[in-house]
Amino acid sequence: MSLMHIPLNSITEQDLRVLVDNKVAETKFIEYKERLPGNSDGDKKEFLADATSFANASGGDIIFGIKESEGVPIEICGLGEINPDREIARLESIMRDGISPRMVGKDIKAIELQNGSTVIIMRISRSWALPHMVIFQKDYRFYTRNANGKHPMDVSEIRAAITLSETIIEKIRNFRLARLSMITSGETPLQFSDYPVIVLHVVPLNAFDPSIQVDLRIVQENAQLLKTIYGGTSSKRYNAEGFFAYDINGDWSNWRICAYTQVFRNGIIESTDTRIFSKEAKLIHSLYLEEKLFRSLKEYLEFLNIVGASAPILIMVSMLRVCGFKMALPPSIYVFDEAVIDRNDLIIPEVLVEKLDVEPEDILKPTLDVIWNAAGLPGSMYYKDGKWDGRR
Predict the structure, then answer these.
(1) Which of 129, 313, 342, 375 is exposed most, by the fewest CB atoms within 10 A?
(2) Helix/strand/coil for 294
(3) d(Cα 267, Cα 167) in Å, to the nearest integer?
(4) Torsions phi, psi of 107, nearest 5?
(5) Which of 28-32, 49-53, 206-210 has the weakest average pLDDT?
């Protein structure tokens, strides 16, 4: 038992009391600390070893402010009168300077107790950039975890971690290419096989961990966040892959699916839409494209937080059958006649998201710039000084 099934922002003092009342001992996924690490070199090294051991293994929670005896929690003692924001910033600074490569799959939350004290929880995801090394004061050590706690990694464990890291990214990229191939060949529910289509993949990096399964009942309860890219859903239902929401064109006697959002059982989201494009005029409605991607991604990240997915996450945008299309700008639908996309399928490099509470306008700029570059233009016309304002 641990708290990993509860989204970090939903953990309360009552959840902590359940750990104590049920004598939930330290495991591979949870560790208790009575105090925060101090500023001594020894304290910092111990903290960095703990943090990297979770990242190099299966992830987990470090809870500061719970007293334990032989690994069993006996009291929620709290951390006294501290400045939580300052302490969280200090912990992040220690990790930033003492770990290589940088750890991105982590989040920290302070929980205020009824007695006025504070508990701090650090949630660390299984990393994709394995293995992480403690480099504080040239320590240069790797740590991992098992049921008995952390331990230094041996050569075979380090080699296996490097191989696993490469395998995770390769699996995600292969998944993306396989799904795009299925969309192109008409093997998905999208029934406009001759239309250009935009495809958005939102992939938690731990999605291919066999232990990761989202609760489809929670997915259904929050299906309002699964609107297609253009917006709305005509229907929602379970399917063999997980949960499916879609939009249709045409009347009920002759309708075809023009857009869908698929949630896979491992938490991956795939959303497709044909309505950003004017097929006959070969135009991409640029403002709609950006506004709809922002709205969709914001809702999908909110959805993943609710169902318990954890960062980091890869965001991948693809545009299929777009050779010869031009970018069109409102209000008069000005068209850059000289700028034409010169390839059929535009597979845009992935973007890494370190937290779920990010602004889509900030993280999607590199993706949007690539789309505009593909049309022969220097970048998105809607950003001014690096900020999106929806105007040219």
Answers:
(1) 342
(2) helix
(3) 18
(4) -150, 150
(5) 206-210
Q: Which two tokens stand for residue 96?
A: 């930033």
- Kindly report the pTM of this predicted structure: 0.75
Stretch(es) of the chain classified as CATH 3.30.950.30: 8-153
- Amino acid at site 224: Q
| 274-276-281 Cα angle (round to 5) | 95
* Mean pLDDT value across residues 38-43: 94
Q: Is the dihedral of CA 163, 166, 171, 172 positive or negative?
A: positive
323 SS3 class: coil
81 pLDDT band, cuts 50/70/90, is confident
In 3-state terms the chain splits into helix, strand, coil percentages (rounded to 5) of: 30, 30, 40
Name residue 150's amino acid.
K
Residues 6+ apart with CB under 8 A from 272: 183, 188, 190, 197, 198, 199, 200, 228, 229, 259, 260
Q: Give the ranges where the chain is alpha helix by DSSP (H).
A: 13-21, 41-56, 84-98, 155-184, 216-221, 286-306, 360-363, 365-374
DSSP state for residue 223 in the 8-state scheme? G
Q: What whole-number percentage of the chain has pLDDT above 90?
A: 63
Answer for the pair 212, 308: CB distance below 8 angstroms, yes or no: no
Q: Is the pLDDT of residue 12 over 60?
A: yes
What region, left, alpha or beta, does residue 340 occupy, with left being phi > 0 and alpha being psi -120 to 50 degrees?
A: beta
Q: What is the mean pLDDT of the chain?
A: 90
Q: Are 316 and 348 in contact (CB under 8 A)?
A: yes
Q: Which residues does 251 contact at the CB level (< 8 Å), separation at least 6?
A: none
Burial environment of residue 268 by CB neighbours within 10 A (0 to 12, 13 to 18, 19 or more):
buried
Count H helices and E strands in the chain, helices first. Answer: 8, 24
CA–CA separation, 275 and 159 (whole Å): 47
Q: What is the pLDDT of residues 127-160, one digit of tens each?
A: 877 899 999 988 889 999 998 889 999 988 888 8
Q: What is the mean pLDDT of residues 194-210?
A: 89
